[in-house]
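This part of the workshop introduces the protein records we will be handling. Each record describes a single protein and holds just a pair of labelled lines. Instead of coordinates, the fold is spelled out as a row of discrete tokens. To make this concrete, we reproduce a full record directly below:
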Amino acid sequence: MTNTRKRPRRKLIALAASLAVATASLALWTGNAQAVVGLPTPDHVVVVVMENHAYSQVIGSSSAPYINNTLKAGGANLTQSFGITHPSEPNYYQLFSGSNQGRTDDSCVSVGSISAANLGSELIAAGKTWGSYNEGLPSQGSTVCSNSAGKYAQKHNPWFGFSNVPTNTAYTMTQFPTDYTTLPKVSFVVPNLCNDMHDCSVTTGDTWIQNKLGAYATWAQTHNSILVVTFDEDNKSSGNKIPTVFYGQHVTPGSSSGTTYNHYNMLRTLEDLAGLTTHAGNAASASDITGIWN
């Protein structure tokens, strides 16, 4: 005779097994963004934004030996990376917030006049750290439109336009730390109008990156960190194709990607590298930059 008392126990065991499978499946599907898309989880990402040069003016050029021989050779090169529009300022807003926020020229913005989500506000809301390092900025948090002595221009610093990004997270370049462990989770570095290649040569900008950030780049290779060098727009004669290179511990040396990417893809990737679950503006529908990670 079959012992009917064992049946409820068997059912409970089967139910528990089914729940375990369901829980494992749910964990897989609800894992963090990095697990889903295969991105690394760096402690720090530093993004340097240069100015107004086409891909062909920098990548492969003898005028940019550091970018080519160190960052590109030892990191990853995006061969189809594009700015979105002209002139400069809208591109910075698109890179930082996924929208030009109505900016169509290079005029000085009213400080704190925009409340839309952006990379800085998302990081802060998630309890992570954000900062910008602005060469020529007269002092930390200064909201001046320009500083001729330091060749500074607010148009290249979109964080000042947002009410949800504290102005005191805007540092001078002299405040860039020598102890890189103290860097924010994500930070932007914006050289002045000469060193960003806007008013001066490609060689000037290349040398500046090496002198100011070369030590960080070397450190990033062994300290779970990433350096990104990109441009706002091209020279208006190359279809807005711009140089973009990644360098750091999780970047496959000598790799490249021929997938077409723009500032929205970059923003989405920065958000996901930081483990954010929100995405600003057009970054929400953009894909991550892939194929370069080890």
Remarks:
- The radius of gyration is 22 Å.
- Residues 55 and 284 are 26 Å apart (CA to CA).
- Confidence is low (pLDDT under 50) at residues 12-36.
